[in-house]
Prior knowledge:
Strands 1, 2, 3, 4, 5, 6, 7 and 8 form an 8-stranded antiparallel sheet that branches. This protein has helices spanning 2-20, 112-120; strands at 32-43, 48-59, 64-75, 78-85, 88-90, 94-106, 127-137, 143-152. The protein has a single domain (2-157), classed as Immunoglobulin-like (Sandwich). The chain is of the alpha+beta class.
Amino acid sequence: MKALRRIIIAAAMAVTALMAASCGVSKIKDIKLTGAGVKYIIPTSLRSFDAVLVLGIDNPAMTFKVSNVDGAIRVDDIPYATFQAGEITVEGRQSQEYVLPCSITLEPDITLIDLLKLAARRSLEGMKADVNLRVASKSGAINAPLKYKNIDLSEFSK
């Protein structure tokens, strides 16, 4: 479970970091992930899981919606998992917790030994993500699909 938690937290960190970098408005860059946790994990098969994340987000900027989130996580350039996440609306000028449902599917080549090695790591070093998402402002002035590749997740855990 510890390895799955690492994969899920990594996905959450990537999505939240991208929300903060998605727009040129100066306050958007001040959005911070104040916490990330796994509320629960439910196995749906031997290789896939549904999870609910709890994300603490401090948003000094405008209200915006994040949707159509999907991506992949690699560890040491080896594909480990793909993920899809639900939709959340991040309220403007507030600091609060948000619940984000997601689904994770392990890649076919990932074994139990690979997961145990990941669980033994003490950091997110070597973990990278590719993320696709759509960000829309409440007013509709911004509504754009965004794609990010090779996000170094260890940068967000420092």
